[in-house]
Fold this protein.
Amino acid sequence: MDFRYTEEQLALQETLQRFIARDYGFEQRRAFAKAEPGFSTAAWRQYAELGLLALPFPEEYGGLDGGAVDVMAVMERVGQGLLLEPYLSTVVLCGGILRDSASAALRSAILPQIAAGEVKLALAAYEAAGRYELNHVATTAVAESGGWRLNGRKSVILDAPSADCFLVSARSSGAVGERAGVSLFLVPRAASGLKVLPYATQSGARAGDLELTDTRIEGAALIGEPGQALGALERGVDGAIAALCAEACGIVGALNQATLAYLKSRKQFGVPIGVFQALQHRMADMYIAEEQIRSMAIIAAVNAGGTDARSRGRALAAAKAYIGQAARFVGQQAVQLHGAMGVVDDLIISHYFKRLTMIDMTFGDADFHFARFSDAGEQGTHQAA
Amino acid sequence: MDLNFTPEEEAFRAEVRAFLAGELPRDISDKLRLGRRLTKDDMVRWQKILFRRGWGAGMWPQRFGGAGWNVVQQHIFEEECAAANAPPQIPFSLRMVAPVIMAFGNERQQQYFLPRIVSGEDWWCQGYSEPGSGSDLASLRTGAVREGDHYVVSGQKTWNTLGQYADWIFCLVRTSSEARPQSGISFLLIDMKTAGISVRPIITLEGEHEINDIFFENVRVPVANLVGEENKGWTYAKFLLNHERTSNAGVGNCKRSLTQLKQIAAVQSVNGRPLIEDPRFRDRIAQVELELMALEITNLRVLSAFARENRPPGAEVSALKIKGSEIIQQLAELKMRALGHDALPYLREALDPEWSAEPLLGSHYLSYAPSLSGQYFNLRKTTIYAGSTEIQKNIISKMILGL
């Protein structure tokens, strides 16, 4: 057992920390979020140069052969800096699905482009009224000569406006809600009948809905076997969940640091408010929550690459559920302890809080994953590792 | 970062498991399994078995007779012991006074006391709290006055655990009232057979005798039994408390309790189905299990950092103590609640090893059920002893957060 980052991982974190201090201050970030495309294209180029975009891919595809713990190290800093770039969507989520489930030909075609920063992707998996269920797919995929025809609408696709390609889940057989029958396609933005309806999200990052009207794609765009994509989707989302857990961990660390500094500097009744025991104990609870969150983020990272869907799913559900609850506590209390300063837009606290809230409600919230964990919990004792 | 055990660690686990299967006396493990009362002899017998195997004190350095285990080995050992229903080792000896003697005692004290602890020959108890000094421990008043080669100790200690079994007591005593309270305290080792010591039981809410008042009336203690320097006892006391709290996470025990809870919930029924299939109850189990999953990793992270940085346990253990004590309470509460109204009978005789439920309550009555309510009541102590949860938060605020 070893709970430490390697020298390389620590160096990577330090590089990112310097980058954030220099190029991604709070005001700079606000400017990025306000203008199109809602993030910094210069930062994206820098990520490519730093190798971040190549991190979790095999060397043969121009990658660095990193694993989920390397991604964890990066995502902690993504959280701390509230970075807006579509790293999670492109590299971790879609890149991960393509790496694990696409044909060798497709991998060779696209992974080197992701690694080089030449292509951005977004996952179009969820649909209206389906909440967090990946099998709630009404969008249809009909086989045609040499290809497929897609029709339907996908909801809240994170980073959709900037995506060059989409991974789209569509039903090639079966009824809405069935596990079998869901297929996954790599759809270029330029495909016929594809329309993006863009909007901003609570954190400032962009998202959009996708309309597919008789969208024709070639047969090679199919990922895996027809109708068998749900396992690949779940595995990919589990990987993204681990990354989100790490991002939350980074944010919670930053929030605790900022809140502690505030308790020491803010004076009322002639003294720093941190001398009051009610606030001290709250801060102690936030510190304990941070430690427990970090442990759960570690559990998430080391299980993210697991090929046994059951044990991987249970570990990831546990981590997402726990962090959803505990990070909500830290976020709300950080706002509370900052008093009115916690609710203004001009301070980073509220932005951290909003991003934590979004993280909880992405790929299944605390309740969703708690149910998943609890329902899997009838057998034996847990194994953390 | 890697949560897998190495092949060596897996081999060690197999070794521990085989040892427990062969050497843990069945009559003792049955008591643990069925929630029956443990005797002094049970615990001493087990300590002696461990000692013969060279495992009397796993984490102690080998030069003091320990096994020299690292944090992960100790974790594996505790996990396996809990799973096998082994009794706890006597913490006051092994985890509390011994580290103090190792760090601050003189060579004579180390050579005399440590071998007798690891072999199970001596049973130690703790003389910290006093009627007027609980959370505010530094206000303690039990006095020790120097008379030639002796200290003469007078006063009262309370909340002393299992002192009725003890051969020795380590005591915080006041040797000076001149400066601030913390700087007039000394750490004394006192033979319980010394004239002037009397032990009075305190019966706790579940009806058992676990704790005591201890009275000292002009008890003469050789100066040779002073640990370290006079008036420096507060430093040693805090060092001891941090060592104690490293075991307060109790992950192995929590895991055993969780397993038992799931077993009970599988046997009890609701609407003709096992209770564990009731989502409302299962969610309560799952909520505690999440905390325990996180605590297991937090515990290992914190303890391995101390080991790696070669420093004594610091204030971080307060977080472990808070979480571990809450989890063991919640599990005990759920076990009791799982029984439904079977939790209501108060059957003291059911803690005796030979007790049988027949014919009193019928065959549906789980043989370990009678102890569960008492365990719930008893374990309310965990968030109070060794520094209450609120004191732990004060410590975190001051020592870690700098508030």
